């Protein structure tokens, strides 16, 4: 029996040739299906944990863990160009790359980190989780829907295991009332939300950044967007923690909009829709992010003993 594998036109094709009867069995599967399966399984696990603990606020921890993974991915994938994802859904390949990373960074790894932290799992469970993820990484490479440049599976094992340990420690620190852990959790979930919104605005061709750090304009956009997302998440976090009167907190959306204006003036920020529509969309989304950050702050405060 011979197995032939190739990836073409967004389809992953597995052809099984049987020598005995000279029959050919072809299984055609779109590249995005494995990514979709991982996303659905992750959401099911997330819902199970929330309902089993009867705490909807656990989604704040989940988003905070996502933000922390976003930081790591910004360093190793956006800057380091360590691997490439091929879900083949979007017309722009680099945005496809980021979309594949989002499946891992927004869903799979943070959900497992939440499970590890909430249930304070022992090392053997963490090793089992990491081993499963390494197996999935191998499977995605075999299916030709994921490619590594210089990354190694050993790196995945070490860094993801470390991440799970950090999530356990982080939750204990929040519960003990450590201010740094509360601040960091609030910042990470705010930046994760801001960067996700900015990515959506990029793939819908509402706006993009072009500074010239990278030759690929789409990679350049994601690079600047990530930095701006970190800054805007920090502004929301500081506003919620420092400003006591809720109505004064609405200065935060004005400020995050204001820091974009010099970039717009110098042509670094390019808006592809009428500017007045962009302004409305921006303030609506920024206000929703502010509201969510306020909610997240109340949840984190309640977790402290």
UniProtKB/TrEMBL annotation:
Name by which UniProt lists this protein: Uncharacterized protein
Domain of life: Bacteria
The entry's keywords: Membrane, Transmembrane, Transmembrane helix
Transmembrane segments: 32-51, 58-86, 98-119, 126-148, 154-171, 183-209, 221-243, 250-269, 275-297
């Amino acid at each position: 029996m011979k197995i032939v594998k190739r990836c073409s036109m967004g389809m992953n094709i597995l052809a099984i040739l049987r020598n005995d009867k000279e029959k050919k069995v072809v299984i055609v599967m779109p590249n995005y299906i494995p990514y979709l399966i991982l996303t659905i399984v992750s959401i099911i696990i997330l819902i199970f944990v929330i309902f089993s603990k009867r705490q909807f606020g656990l989604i704040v921890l989940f988003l905070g863990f996502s933000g922390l993974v976003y930081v790591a991915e910004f360093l190793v994938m956006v800057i380091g160009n360590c691997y490439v994802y091929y879900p083949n859904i979007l017309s722009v390949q680099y945005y496809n790359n980021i979309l594949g990373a989002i499946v891992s960074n927004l869903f799979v790894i943070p959900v497992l980190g939440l499970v590890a932290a909430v249930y304070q799992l022992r090392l053997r469970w963490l090793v089992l989780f990491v081993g499963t993820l390494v197996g999935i990484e191998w499977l995605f490479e075999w299916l030709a829907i994921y490619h590594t440049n210089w990354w190694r599976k050993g790196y995945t094992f070490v860094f993801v295991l470390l991440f799970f340990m950090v999530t356990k420690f982080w939750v204990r620190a929040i519960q003990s009332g450590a201010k740094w852990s509360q601040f960091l959790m609030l910042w990470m979930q705010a930046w994760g939300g801001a960067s996700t919104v900015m990515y959506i605005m990029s793939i819908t061709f509402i706006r993009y950044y072009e500074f010239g750090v990278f030759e690929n304009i789409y990679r350049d956009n994601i690079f600047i967007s990530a930095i701006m997302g970190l800054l805007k998440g920090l502004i929301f976090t500081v506003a919620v923690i420092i400003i006591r009167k809720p109505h004064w907190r609405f200065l935060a959306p004005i400020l995050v909009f204001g820091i974009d204006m010099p970039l717009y003036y110098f042509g670094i920020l390019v808006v592809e829709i009428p500017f007045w529509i962009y302004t409305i969309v921006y303030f609506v989304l920024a206000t929703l992010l502010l509201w969510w950050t306020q909610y997240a702050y109340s949840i984190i405060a309640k977790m402290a003993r």
